[in-house]
Amino acid sequence: MSQNKNNSQTNVQLDLISEDKLAQMTPMEKIRLILDEVRSGKIIVLERGLTPGEEAKLIEMTMTEIVPDEFSGIEIESYPTKQNTSFLRKILGKTTTQTRLTVIGEANQLKTIKKDRDMISAIVTK
Q1: For the chain, what percent of residues have pLDDT higher than 70?
Q2: Considering the entire predicted model, what is its pTM?
Q3: What's the Cα-to-Cα distance from 23 to each of 46, 57, 79, rounded to whole Å?
């Protein structure tokens, strides 16, 4: 079996970031981490997705960093959110939105081909 020494030109790094790590970070630290990693060519998978506010800020910051022929922006896909609407929470009027797994990559690398409530199918290119 021969090994190709130029694999780095065809490989894409996939970083899986745990919910615990994200919980220790401020919203801006999360956004900066994601943008820096995606700009370096990595695909990021978050075990627990961003809040709607964090996602909006990520998109806003991404728009300011787009540079033609350098950085084309991001593609972001998440599973639909689940709401915790237990009987007790309904009585108390408290429902919590729980974000789910999120995949983020540079727009010219990550193409979503199918998404439903239980699966995200994507093509990753270098």
Answers
A1: 77
A2: 0.74
A3: 11, 17, 19
